[in-house]
Amino acid sequence: MRVVVVVVLLVSGCAPGEQSVGDGLEWSGCGGEFECTRLAVPLDHDEPHGERIEIGVIRLPAGGDRIGSLVINPGGPGGSGIAYARAARSVVSDEVRERFDIVGFDPRGVGESAPVECLSDERLDVFLALDATPDDPEERAVLERASREFAEACQAESGHLLPHVGTVDAARDMDALREALGDQKLTYLGMSYGTFLGAVYADMFPSRVRALVLDGALDPSISRLQLNIGQANGFEIAFRAYAETCLAEGTCPFRSHDPDGALAELTDLLRRTDTQPLRAGDRQVTEALATLGALTPLYNRTGWPALTETLRQAMNGDGTLLLHNADELVGRDDDGHYSNQTEANLAINCVDSPYPRSTSAYATAATKAAEKSPAFGPYIMWSSLPCAYWPAPPTLQNRPLTAKGAAPILVVGTKRDPATPYAWSEALADQLQSGVLLGFDGDGHTAYLNGSTCVDDAVDRYLLTGTVPENGAICPRIN
Question: What amino acid positions are annotated as catalytic residues?
Fold first, then answer.
């Protein structure tokens, strides 16, 4: 998932008794034990008899005594739920797969579901490599122009979709999917941005919640720029945790002997690429690409050894691994083709929240972010600039989500999560009337199936039986 992984919020509930709109499903084999189908839904849910779009859906049937369907979402926004479901054997436990059909869908605007399209592969190469931390008026003007052109290209290629790709519409699609699957209530596992989709669903349809696991949560009550600052701080915290470990193990590529010094060396490396890009084959590794390449391995603790080698290589003038990491994060394959992840990410974010329309607001926020997060803050803040020029108006306002009347909802947070800080999970669990918080004293983005049997057992028990852990329980750190 991209670094612009966070989103912002909220929505009006449906009228009492409102019914979702979905067609019956006809499944066909699509590789191995998987079955695929298409779900027709209105482009505009306020016009249920108007133009329709199709949502791509996949399932892995339950292996044994079936309880129902477990709908899963990997986050993003822009991540493919279909690809995520195809990896079901590594993202959901054996016990849960035995009792549930594992169902993934690409949210509208993503992948196989009326995808948003904006730039060609060649233009995306240029856009993602742009100087995203402008140091003077000339550089700022270039970034402003590119951000405006990105928004204009999305309008030209996908203008009819843009007002209808937000999380409110995706939540309505998910309810149509629930109905078409034959489930009276929704069982759901959402990661990262997927927690926002799940929380919006619960707020709109509280009586239709069976069990929702929201792992690596967003705080729906704060602004997008506040979310950006929080995420930047999260990556700094994650980097310090990584540095402490590699310094203790004696494997670090840094000259310094403490995390502060290691962070200063990383910041200096990234700043040097602003004027002296590294090489990786026939491509240049600019500061933007280097920043993405440095933060990608922080998403999972298992990526820390790769980060050590990435930084060692970069400090010797070779940007190959930095570029590889960046390409992986933004969905670029070895042939130079992109998924629509970047375009969908911005399209969904920009209609899910009010963004400042003045570039000076981003400049001020980037300066403040640099004070707390010098390595990642300015880049993450400026990455939202296309939303200043977005042609579709925001559909949500930032406010707490309560899901009044819903069954217990399990919110899971990781103490040193780089992309969704633990404080956000605390906030969401507190806002949800039936929210229950489970903490993990760990590293990496999201907690379920990330090495803690304590977390895994609690999540599985909840999904299978509806039994929640004690609110505020903390699963211990693993070594």
Answer: 192, 417, 445
